[in-house]
Every structure is written in C-alpha cells, then in structure tokens.
Amino acid sequence: MPDAPASPARGVWGSRVGFVLAAAGSAIGLGNIWRFPYVVGENGGAVFVLIYLGFVFLIGAPVMLGELALGRRTERNPVGAFAAVAPGTLWRFVGLLGVITGVGILSFYGVIAGWTFGYFLKTVSGGFNTIIAQESAAVFDDFVSNWMLSTGLLAAFLVLTALIVWRGVSRGIELMSKILMPMLFFLLAVLAFRSVTLSGAREGLEFYLAPDFSKLRAQTFPTALGQAFFSLSLGMGAMITYGSYIRKREDLVASAGIVCLFDTMIALLAGLIIFPALFHAGLDPASGVGLVFQVLPPLFATLPGGQLFGSAFFLLLTIAALTSTISLLEVPVSYLIDEWKWSRGKAVLVTTLGTALLGVPSALAFGAVGLFSSVPGANVDFLTLMNIVFGNYSLSVGSLLLAVFIGYRWGVAGAAKEIELEGVAFGLRPVWAFLIRFLCPVAVAVIIVYIVLTGNYF
Ligand code: PHE
To answer: Closest by alpha carbon to 266, among 323, 200, 216?
Structure first.
C-alpha cells in the first residue's frame, strides 16, 4: 500500500510517534483535568471511577479502534468516511452529527480553556500567592462573572486554535504534542505527590478510591459513559479524522491502546491531585464546573515556589486544551475542505466565527448578564447544558451509531482487514468483534433508552 493519502492537500502524520502523540493530545485535555474530577466529585467518588474505567476499556477502546480504522481506510472526514463505505445512504448523517457536535463542544470548551489561560495570567502575576481555600470559591465566581474577560479569553483561545489548524495538520499539531505532553505528565506527578502527603489526604483518597456502592445512582451510568467518550475524543469523528492522516503501515491496535492508557493515567493522576487537596481544605466535592479552579490555586500557594509551579501548570493545561481544541476544529474544517471543496483558510475562518458566536452564551453563563443563566426545565446554566447535550449525549449517540456501522454495515471483517494491513498482528480480533458488535451497542443503547424513559437527563 502506498503511504500517500488520497489527495496530497490533506496531509499525513510525520511519524508513528507523531501520530500517537497527536491522538493523545486530542484525548488529553480539560476532559481529564477539569471534567473528570468534577464529575467524579458529583457522582459519589470511587464507584463512579470504577464504572468509568470499565467503560473506557470495554467500550471506549474498541470504539477508538473502529474510528481510527474507518478514518485510515477512507482517508476522509467523518461525513465522507461514512459515505465512502456506504454510498447513497443515510449513514453520512452520523458523520454530520459529529461535525455539529464538534462545533458544539468547541463552543463551551473554549470558554473553560479561556478561564484556564486567565488563571495562568493571574498566577504568573502573583494574584494567587496568598489565596486560601476558604476564599477560592468566591475568587472563582468573581473571575467568571467578568463577562468581558470570559468572552475575550474565549475569543483569544479560538483564534489561537484557528491559527494552528490553518497551518495544517502535521506541522501544527505534532510539534506541540511532542514536547508538551511529557512535561504536563511530569508536573502532574509532582503535584499528586504533594497532594497525597497533605494532612487529611486519607479521607480524600478514600472518597476517590474506596467504592461505596450505596452512592450508586441511575445517573452514574450515562455520566460515566459520556465522560469516557468525552475524554477519549470519541463519538464525533475526531479519531476518524486523525485516523485519516495515518500511514498504512502503523499499528492501529497498539496506537489505540496507548492513547486509552495515557488518557486514563492522566485522568487518574488529576483525581489524585484534586481529592486529597479538596478534603484537606474542607471543600465540597460536588462543586461542579468550578471545582479544579477552586482547589488548585490554594494548593499551589502551599508549595515552595508555588507561583512558578502554578504558572507552569496552568500554562501546560492551556496547551493541553489547545491540542484538544485543534482536533475539535479539524473535524468541521476537514469536512468543509473535502466535501464542499473550500480552501483551508476559508473553512477555518467560517467555522471559528460560527463557534465563537455559539460560545458567547456559555461565556456569559456565569456572568453578571445572567440572561442565559438558567434554561427552563433544567436547573443548569447554559454552559453546563451545552456540556451535557454535546459533551455527553451527543457523543454517546454518535458512538452507538458508529459501533453499529462498523459491526454491521462495514462489518468486522472489512474493518479487521484494514487493521491487519501490512501484516499487523491482531490477536484480540475476536474480543474486539464481540465488543463492537454486541457489548458497545447494547450497553450504550440500554443506557440511553433508560435515560429517555425516566427523563433523568441531568
Ligand atoms: N478529549 C478531549 C479532552 O479530554 C475533548 C474532546 C472531545 C476532543 C471530543 C475531541 C473530541 O479534553
């Protein structure tokens, strides 16, 4: 098989390491460090973590392999990928759902990423040097209620994302991921060490690691499932798109495995930082979207050299968010390039503007404006609503349909042929076939149907 992609304009990853790091860069982001701890905190701690881990490896990993295989086989954006395998069918709308979901996620993700950058600026300038845990919630509220700041940071972040995506896949994305991901990992490990040695850490570790099954609720399942898809960047075609830039000789099974493993390690590390520190400071684990922003600054303030350390941390987290937003933006952009024959520049410009407009209500959600602060019927702000609709259910539906598509329309034989190209060994093939055909679709469908029947969406 030739290494060259279908059209030279699409680009191709520079190396195996480059691809794995870029895919890991997409997966690792705010989902691990911001979203994971707060949903764990809201859903009873360790029980949630247990179910989450089960979902990552039994449902997420097989879906990831499926997305990568579909992308590499077709060398297309999500819409084109479905259409290439099943021409003239409605399947391409699954790809379109992914494109829409990408924009939806990017719109609120950009707001949180903006806050992260804002926290970086505040840390570097010494604004958090003396912060104590008891006041950090008020400081956070104050920070996010400045809507001009939130909107400005959102805009800045989207522009940065757009510039990188505009430069093209390989040059823009690979380079960032290669150097910065390992640095982030190192900082997280040091922080986790600091956190577990705090007084009162034990209680936090228990909450986080010793399952209390009485805390299990019906809501735990869809939330854990959605978190798994969100964190692994699945269900909207990000991995189809990234897979479309992989060379034929790479081992997709190993790549998917490594990405799932890295992503999970980072999320687990983030929990090891947040929960001991949280219990140490006597904060509420169910603080929602603001959780990490409330726990971390006071933790840094207790560290020798905390200002430097905290600055490095928020900067790296901003960059980790950036390598994720790049993959979110790349989905609609590759769709417009492939299917509408737009130039990359035009596609980037139009998508970024649209996303920015959609993001404004999320940026205002916590703000003084309050116009969007609650949606009738759901007692949540606009940002949280977007997070649940696009970041949870949309990805779950997308992954369900993808599993059905691979299992029954393309067929496991066809997919396995792509995976086994150039003699790559696929010993887990029967296991994968079972998971993608039966376990994934059934489990996801049962959870979604249950939620629809009971109306417990939130
Ligand atoms: N996985 C990313 C994160 O954890 C978010 C993301 C979701 C990126 C879906 C792409 C697609 O931050």
So the answer is: 323
Q: List the structure tokens of 195.
A: 């956190």
Q: How big is the chain by its Cα radius of gyration, in Å?
A: 21
The DSSP-derived string for 315-331 is HHHHHHHHHHHHHHHHH
161 CA to centre of ligand 1 in angstroms: 14
Where are the chain's structural domains? 8-454
Among 237, 230, 255, which Cα is nearest to 67's? 237
The pTM is what? 0.94
Pocket lining: 306 vs ligand 1, CB cutoff 6 Å: no
Q: How far is the CA of 229 from the centre of ligand 1 (A)?
A: 8
**pLDDT value for 354:** 98
What is the distance in A from the centroid of ligand 1 to the CA of 228?
A: 10
Helix (H, G, I), strand (E, B) or coil at 150: helix
For the Cβ of 31 lying below 6 angstroms from any atom of ligand 1, the answer is yes
Fold (topology level) of 8-454: Hydantoin permease (1.10.4160)
Q: In sequence order, what DSSP letters do the residues of 207-232 get, joined into one string? A: HHHS--GGG--TTHHHHHHHHHHHHT
pLDDT in tens, 8-63: 456 677 777 778 888 888 999 999 999 999 999 999 999 999 999 999 999 999 99
| CB of 233 sitting under 6 A from ligand 1 | yes
User: Could you report the per-residue pLDDT of 103-157, keeping only the tens digit for each?
Assistant: 999 999 999 999 999 999 999 999 999 999 899 999 998 999 888 999 999 999 9
pLDDT tens sequence across 139-149: 998 999 888 99
Residue identifier of the C-alpha nearest atom 4 of ligand 1: 31
Candidate from 26, 107, 325, 397 with most ligand 1 atoms within 8 A of CB, to mutate? 26
